[in-house]
Design goal:
Blueprint (H helix, E strand, L loop, with lengths): L1 E6 L6 H11 L7 E6 L2 H9 L5 H5 L5 E6 L3 H23 L4 E3 L2 H7 L5 E4 L3 H13 L3 E4 L6 H13 L4 E2 L5 E4 L2 E4 L9 E5 L3 H12 L4 E6 L12 H11 L6 E6 L4 H13 L4 E5 L6 E3 L2 E3 L3 H12 L25 E6 L2 H15 L10 E5 L2 E5 L3 H4 L10 H12 L3 E9 L8 H18 L5 E7 L8 H11 L1 E4 L2 H10 L11 E3 L13 H7 L4 E5 L5 H6 L3 E5 L9 H11 L2 H16 L2 E8 L11 E4 L11 H14 L5 H10 L3 E4 L5 E2 L11 E7 L4 E6 L15 H23 L5 E2 H10 L9 H17 L4 H13 L3 H17 L8 E7 L2 E6 L7 E4 L4 E4 L12 E2 L3 H4 L22 H13 L1 E10 L5 E7 L1 H7 L4 E7 L7 E8 L2 H14 L5
Parallel strand pairs: 4-24, 5-6, 5-23, 6-7, 10-11, 10-12, 12-13, 13-15, 14-22, 16-18, 16-19, 19-20, 20-21, 23-24, 26-27, 28-30
Antiparallel strand pairs: 1-3, 2-3, 8-9, 17-18, 25-29, 25-31, 29-30, 32-33, 32-36, 33-34, 35-40, 37-38, 39-40
Pfam families: AllG (PF06545), CoA_binding (PF02629), Ligase_CoA (PF00549)
Organism: Clostridium gallinarum
InterPro entries: AllG-like (IPR009499), CoA-bd (IPR003781), NAD(P)-bd_dom_sf (IPR036291), OXTCase_su_AllG_h-dom (IPR024033), SUCC_ACL_C (IPR005811), Succinyl-CoA_synth-like (IPR016102)
């Protein structure tokens, strides 16, 4: 039976998940398991393996899918335990390193402003856009990532060339820059040889042979396997050759190419003939019979390395580099016995196929279904081909596929020799020789038991400085029965010798014929700098690739990449298009500046109908985007009932409900009339409202006053006690505060109060104690001066002193005055409103004016008053998220670590984590509101809807929790996340407005 577990928004790189899958498949009771991200390509793999379930089909690209085939449901728990342990171990290993870790390219560049190289190892379906971003930031690129389209490769390499940068790859498996090994690379001593090649085991074979011969390599610049394709036109190879020509420590240039397009190959040779340094070139598949000028043409990778060594030591190039094979073959294998090659390296496989085909005249190489050669029973397979690695680790990491193939070939009575490579280096299996030894012994024994001879012939590609031991790997293989040679070419020659075929190489003469030299282009400053310094790397993807960089003197920052926009291809294209529009940044900066420069002052407290015209009729304002009474949830309906009773439009609950249901009372969002309302947000004409003026431009905003907590109107309560309190606020509290504020010329400066209170531990949504006390400190002397009844003075001051949350409503009006001023900029992607009506969460962004973008609202997580639980909670409600819109509330959780336990967010570390996370979706910081517990950094400012969509991080909102039934009131407090869909809709609409559609 298939069991599916979806871990939402839980990105891990594919190599980690492949290794995890292999580990899980060894557990007792697991028939089959696959763990992958929910991309379309991975779902195809699930389908092909019979593991695609409905739950898996519905998963997003940023979701981790675990599908287990087992007869025992209890096994699933074991799988989850082992998965968590595996991934937690990775996290622990990461924290023990000294590598800085960030979550965006911008953050990586802040951490390492002088970075000069981006190393990519992310899924190919997302890579082109990410590589382009790196190039636009002026970074050279090393793309271990493959599965990038040819069109994208051409486009990106042209861009890189125009910017004077190198794009190494895609499918760049190995490289060395200034003697620093990159990706799947061997540790080779520094030297005077520079290499440009197809970035895989070809480079590894040549560099390791050079190392074993006593030489060294300063650069091995990978190009990717298609660089000499007709379309790509060797863009990277040309620029790299020019770079090495102008690199003083490089005395010899080596070029390694898979079979190239003839025109491109000839142009590269023409370029090489024009450089001043001696060159060794190998074009796999060619069998050169002479050298020309300063270009020495090799047939095998071993010959390439040996010619390079002689040139590097100023020795004459020999006519032939073929060594004797010392192994004595007593009885050659019979004619029907064939050679099978099982390679983890594509270039080594190509070389083996070429040499076997040439010796036996088999007609050349093929490239089909993983085969390099498949003729007359002779087969050479590249196990690193996509068909073998889809959803599985590369064979350099995981031996399983090769083990299966060894068993298969060993049972074939026509198999006489099995050829294989054992590739060492960073990223490879820690002991591949040991992992293969048992199946090799088993296969040799099986053949003997069946009366036939089976030979294993291999080579170890590596050096003694590699993480795995070169000598020990040879010893293990030889002990298992493998005939080990010191190069791949020699191993192939031995395999042929076992068949009674002596491989020969004709002598090559040097022809000094005249060649017309071309004028060489100048090397770009970026490439010259890269080749003349230690690489400073932003590692984007597999974290272990930082190991070799730091160990050998390079610098690196780890960018913990995950798919932008949850992997949604349409949104990715829209975001990339918006990123290129400079006017958006200018508009966003203008919005931010208006927010930062705002000057909010509390001017008065007045009846709502005196400043909001529509309230002179039977109209109620409500929180959130537009909604009608029948669609309101319990607490908002309860607030409406309370308002009707307060206004005297009905005498009891039943009359009030009938009136509201009749349609006689009209409704409007507070936000449509320059107002905001907490929770239900219900505001009626005779309710007193706070008047806040933004003196930057005269924008005015309104909000009702805070009633306290518990059974209050805003939480849907409407008892006689609630209504009587509202009448007292209308008749006493409002007029007293109005008279007091009128004594304060110019109003009360709220920025000063906010700045003080944030340093005292307020975040202005759940915690307002300091701000309320500062307000009381300012208003009390003014109240005392009033010529009114002392009892009224006492009652008002006592109410303010007892109502810790009184400043919340002032802060809400402040936020509204700030955003309505900023909303006068009608371009950009800054979020200018966030609000909820109990059913929908609504946002507005600067570039879309008054248009609402909504999605179903979430229910808060938090702590509950005694006797209540999550089952009693209403979905989130209220305009109070205006506080988060201007950067406080949940956005500034770090300012009020004391409140985090109350809202269910944990402790200080959680508060710090939340604010750091909120910073990732914000454009700037408000220096006016400095937070001591955040190293005095200003509160977050300017939520960018693009960043929300890009990261999948949605604003966290501190909130009260209302009972879902009308009349009960507040039952707790907590936090809630804004739904991502609002921001996605806003970005799609804005893109459409700008003429961007996909």
């Amino acid at each position: 039976m298939l069991y599916t577990v979806i871990k939402k928004n839980s990105y891990q790189d594919s190599i980690n998940l492949m290794l995890l899958t292999n580990s899980i498949n060894t557990l007792n009771g697991v028939k089959k398991c696959s763990i992958m991200m929910g991309t379309a390509a991975n779902k195809d793999i699930f389908k092909n393996s019979g593991l695609l379930t409905k739950e898996a089909e519905a998963a997003a690209p940023s979701d981790m899918i675990i599908v287990v085939d087992t007869d025992d449901e209890k096994v699933v728990n074991k799988v989850l335990e082992e998965s968590d342990k595996f991934l937690n171990d990775l996290a622990v290993k990461k924290t023990k390193t000294s590598i800085e870790s960030v979550n965006s390219l911008e953050a990586a560049l802040e951490e390492m402003p002088d970075a000069n190289l981006a190393l990519f190892s992310i899924p190919g379906e997302y890579a082109a856009d990410e590589i382009e971003k790196a190039l636009d930031k002026g970074l050279n690129v090393f793309s271990f990532t493959d599965n990038i389209s040819l069109d994208d490769e051409v486009r990106l390499k042209k861009k890189a060339h125009e910017k004077g940068l190198l794009l190494m790859g895609p499918d760049c498996g190995t490289g060395i820059i200034s003697s620093i090994p990159l990706a799947f690379t061997n540790v080779v001593r520094p030297g005077n040889i520079g290499i440009v090649g197809a970035s895989g085991t070809g480079i590894q074979e040549v560099t390791t042979i050079i190392n074993r011969l006593g030489g060294g390599v300063v650069h091995a610049i990978g190009t990717g396997g298609r660089d000499l394709n007709e379309s790509v036109n060797a863009i990277t190879m040309r620029d790299a050759i020019i770079g090495l020509e102008n690199h003083d420590p490089t005395d010899v240039i080596v070029v390694i190419s898979k079979p190239p397009a003839k025109r491109v190959r000839d142009e590269i040779v023409e370029l090489l003939q024009s450089v001043s340094k001696p060159v060794v070139a190998i074009f796999l598949g060619e069998k050169p019979d002479h050298h020309e000028g300063n270009v020495y043409l090799a047939h095998t990778l071993e010959e390439t390395a040996k010619i390079a060594m002689d040139l590097a030591n100023n020795l004459p190039v020999k006519e032939n580099y073929l060594d004797d094979i010392n192994y004595e073959v007593k009885t050659p294998l019979s004619k029907e016995k064939t050679v099978k090659g099982l390679y983890s390296g594509g270039t080594l496989a190509s070389e083996a196929g070429m040499l076997i085909s040439e010796a036996l005249e088999l007609g050349g190489l093929i490239k089909k279904e993983g085969y390099i050669l498949k003729t007359n029973g002779y087969e050479v397979i590249d196990l690193g081909d996509d068909m073998y690695t889809q959803g599985k680790p590369h064979p350099m990491i995981d031996p399983d596929v090769r083990i299966e193939k060894i068993r298969e070939y060993a049972k074939d009575e026509n198999t006489g020799v099995i050829l294989l490579d054992c590739v060492l280096g960073y990223g490879s299996h820690p002991n591949m020789a040991g992992a293969l030894s048992d199946v090799i012994k088993e296969s040799i024994s099986y053949a003997k038991e069946n009366g036939r001879e089976l030979y294993f012939v291999g080579t170890v590609c590596g050096t003694e400085s590699d993480p795995q031991s070169y000598d020990e790997s040879i010893r293990i293989l030889e002990e298992a029965g493998v005939l080990v040679e010191d190069s791949n070419a020699k191993a192939v020659r031995l395999a042929l010798k076992l068949k009674g075929i002596e491989f020969t190489e004709a002598d090559k003469k040097l022809y000094n014929k005249e060649v017309s030299k071309i004028e060489l282009p100048t090397v770009s400053e970026n490439v010259h700098e890269l080749l003349n310094s230690k690489p400073r790397v932003i590692n984007i993807g597999v974290q272990s690739f930082t190991d070799s960089i730091s160990e050998y003197g390079g610098k690196s920052v780890q960018y913990d990449w995950k798919p932008v926009a949850g992997g949604n291809k349409k949104l990715i294209k829209i975001l990339n298009a918006l990123e290129k529009i400079e006017e958006i940044k200018k508009a966003n900066d203008e919005v931010i500046e208006k927010m930062k420069s705002s000057q909010p002052f509390l001017m008065d407290v007045v009846p709502a109908k005196s400043v909001i015209d529509i309230l002179n009729n039977k109209v109620l304002l409500h929180a959130g985007p537009p909604i009608e009474f029948e669609n309101m949830t319990g607490p908002m309906q309860g607030s409406c009932i309370g308002a009707v009773l307060f206004e005297g439009w009905a005498n009891n609950e039943d009359e009030a409900r009938k009136l509201l249901e009749s349609g006689e009372v009209k409704f409007s969002p507070c936000h449509h009339v320059n107002a905001v309302g907490p929770m239900g947000g219900i505001t009626s004409g005779n309710m007193p409202v706070l008047v806040v003026e933004n003196k930057l431009d005269g924008t005015v905003a309104y909000c009702t006053m805070n009633e306290g907590i518990g059974k209050v109107l805003r939480f849907g309560a409407y008892s006689e006690e609630v209504v009587e309190r509202l009448k007292w606020m209308r008749d006493i509290l409002g007029p007293v505060l109005s008279k007091a504020l009128n004594l304060k010329e110019g109003g009360l400066n709220l920025s000063v109060i906010i700045a003080k209170a944030i340093t005292m531990g307020d975040e202005f949504h759940q915690r307002n104690i300091a701000a309320t006390l500062n307000f009381v400190k300012e208003i009390t002397p003014l109240i005392v001066k009033l010529d009114i009844n002392d009892d009224e003075k006492y009652d008002v001051i006592k109410f303010l002193a007892d109502t810790d949350q009184f400043f919340l409503n002032i802060m809400m009006a402040t936020g509204k005055a700030i955003v309505d001023c900023a909303r006068k900029v009608t371009s950009g992607t800054v979020v200018t409103t966030m609000t909820r009506n109990g059913r929908e969460f609504g946002v507005r962004i600067s570039g879309m004016g008054d248009e609402w973008f909504t999605a179903p609202v979430n229910t808060p997580n938090g702590l509950y008053f005694t006797g209540f639980s999550e089952d009693d909670a209403n979905p989130d409600i209220g305009d109070s998220a205006i506080t988060e819109t201007v950067g406080v509330g949940g956005m500034a959780m770090i300012a009020a670590p004391g409140v985090t336990r109350f809202v269910g967010a944990g402790g200080f570390d959680d508060a710090l984590r939340v604010s750091n996370e909120m910073q990732e979706i914000s454009i700037s910081n408000n220096s006016n509101w400095s937070i001591p517990t955040w190293d005095f950094k200003g509160a977050c400012l300017g939520i960018d809807a693009r960043k929300v969509v890009e990261t999948g991080i949605t604003p966290l909102i501190n909130t009260g929790i209302a009972h879902k039934n009308a009349g009960v009131g507040q039952i707790g407090a907590g936090t809630v996340r804004a739904p991502l869909a609002c921001f996605e809709k806003a970005i799609i609409a804005y893109a459409k407005k700008l003429g961007i559609e996909f």
